[in-house]
Every structure is written in structure tokens, then in C-alpha cells.
Automatic annotation (TrEMBL):
InterPro entries: BP-dependent_transpt_permease. The gene is dppC_1. It comes from Pseudomonas fluorescens. One of its GO terms (molecular function) is dipeptide transmembrane transporter activity. One of its GO terms (cellular component) is plasma membrane. This is Dipeptide transport system permease protein DppC.
Length: 49
């Protein structure tokens, strides 16, 4: 399966790169949103500062 995919990666790199970039940006956005929610809602962090 990976050997047959190598042809697609060499000829049409965007087939792999664009979905990969979309997944990367989605995970990054969810991480940042989770950090923001934790900072806003965690009472222990408010008392420590």
C-alpha cells in the first residue's frame, strides 16, 4: 500500500500535503482553544498568580 502511494506523492504532492496541513492546523487550533479554556476556567491557576 505504501509502495503504491509513493507514485502519488512524487507526482501529486498536494494530495498528501494539503490534508496533512489541514490536520496540523486543526490540532493546533484545538490545543490553543483548550489552553485558553483552562486558563479561563481553572480556579487553581487564578490563585497561583
Amino acid at each position: 500500500m505504501l509502495a503504491s502511494a509513493r507514485d502519488y506523492i512524487e507526482r501529486a504532492w498536494w494530495v498528501v500535503s494539503l490534508p496533512g496541513l489541514t490536520i496540523l492546523l486543526s490540532v493546533l487550533a484545538i490545543n490553543l482553544m483548550g489552553d485558553g479554556l483552562r486558563d479561563a476556567l481553572d480556579p487553581k491557576l487564578k490563585n497561583a498568580a
